[in-house]
Amino acid sequence: MKMRHLTAALLVATTPFSIAANAQEAAADTTATASATAATPTVGATVYDTAGAEVGTIKSITAPNFVIDTGKNTATLALTALGTGPKGPVLGMTKAELDAAAEKAGAAAKADTAAAIVADAPVYASDGTTQLGKVAEVTDTEFVLDAGAVRVKLPKTSVAKGASGLMIGMTAEAFADATKSADRSASAAAAKPAGK
User: Which of 68, 86, 88, 128 is most buried (CB neighbours < 10 A)?
Assistant: First the structure.
């Protein structure tokens, strides 16, 4: 069985996923008390706190949630957390409070994910249902994913914890392509004579 260090393309594809997932999950449990009137937000709208100060901008809306970007953090919150004020959508948290809550929850999510990276833990593709393999070995910063025909060393930051378990930000097809590419690169490097 071959062990491969995945190419930079795979690491670039997986790392942003885990960061984004942790940041979004970080604020998902954050609740806010906004005004009683429900807001009808739009993408790109500025969200204000109850004192009228800017909290962030609505990045996307997928009912029942929306994603807000504070400039420092990106968080997913329930649409029901929004109220309406004279300037537009209102959130019952200041920018500093939202950033602090997102960072605290992000750190907790990161620790939860790290604790889930143990031997024999299944790892899924981005759909959360297609199993790519199982964790075979774990070090302080990396783990080895046994994908059957190939064993792949990945940084712990390349996975996030989803509803079904550990997952990477790639489809099963993209993962297979990346491991084939890594295999071809390693074979080509091994075939070169020393010093050339």
Answer: 68
Can you tell me the distance from the alpha carbon of 152 to that of 169, in angstroms, rounded to the nearest whole number?
A: 15
The reply to whether the predicted model has a pTM over 0.85 is no
**Dihedral angle, C-alpha 53, 25, 78, 83, nearest 10 °:** -10
CA atoms of 85 and 144, how far apart (whole Å): 51
CA 5 to centroid of chain Cα atoms: 21
- CA–CA–CA angle 10, 12, 15 (5° rounding): 100
Spatial contact of 109 and 159, defined as CB atoms under 8 Å apart: no
CA dist., res. 154 & res. 146, Å (int): 11
Report the C-alpha dihedral over residues 19, 24, 29, 35, rounded to 10 degrees.
150
**What are the backbone angles phi and psi of residue 17, rounded to the nearest 5°?**
-60, -50
